[in-house]
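Class prep. Protein, please:
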Amino acid sequence: MDYKQIQQQCEFDIYPKKDIVLVKGKDSFLWDENGKKYIDCMTGHGAASIGHCNEKVIEAIETQARNLITCTGSFYNNKRAVLMEKLVEFTPSGLNKVFLCNSGTETIEAAIKFARFSTDKSDFICAMRGFHGRTLGALSATYTPKHRERFEPLLDGFSFVPFNNYQELASKISGHTAGIILEVVQCEGGVYVGDKKYFQQVQQLCREKNILLIIDEVQTGFCRTGKKFAVEHFDIQPDILCVAKAIAGGFPMGAVICKDSVEPPVGKHGSTFGGNPLACAAAIASIDFMMENRLEKAATEKGDYLVGKLKETNLPKVKEIRHLGLVIGIELEEDVQPYLEKLMESGIFALNAGPTVIRLLPPLTIEYTELDVVIEQLIKVLK
């Protein structure tokens, strides 16, 4: 069967496609229909952070699928309760209330609505290069013009300031500012890491002005940066934390975890599939696996190892390497697409983060022998 041809005939041409049909995944590896094996440093943009087809997650999904797959939010549910309690324990202190949904962009949509209702204000300040999703609300908070064009006008009340520039941000504050929406690491925007002093100043400003600090950890959450959540590097406590991708071992899920001061209205928001028992079971197994295997420590050690090896090597095409844990951005002096294609030919999947940055998001469970292969191929391609 020609799977590519079927998709080409039936699917909207939304995603730029690689000329590969993937049929199998296990741990750090993916296989195409011809049996070629790849090391996956894309992991579904960070979703498969505990590896593909993790056995604990598979077991949890299989067991739950025999009991109950879907359960509307109108009822209490055992798996939902266990996951919510676990999220409150796992996330930074002070975040006590949980809304479950299906994706990262849905978490931003919910955060915007929750902030407007809780503060009775309408406006938001966001960062240049920031990416928060593609639905109309989340897109209004996303900076990159190529994502926004042809969909405007978007929501009113969103303004953008340079990342890590406190004075510019403070100058945009008004009596209408409901929230400040920031990533602590701008992954899609080029792997730019936030400044600790900047984030602490922003947090203090929010407290003084009755503004909600909304942190987007859709890609950086769940041990990816060397902490359970990247905010822990900066000693800040957001009012609203948006997470998704790695929460459920690759199964679709998102969560908004909030302080008690955030009070969404009854009946004004919801999600048919949000917090379904199947996704909750997968998330419980995934979080337990992360905790049992101390994956935040693994992310720090493996990220430092990979970046250290690259920095030991003379790579004239490389302008800068930025990273936090296993979020790694390799900025080149030129377009990265040809290099991504060469890496794919050599059996390595990697991402871009803008036109000149190679982004690596390997599984946190990747073995050092596999990292050595990634390093070897990166050096070969970049030399």
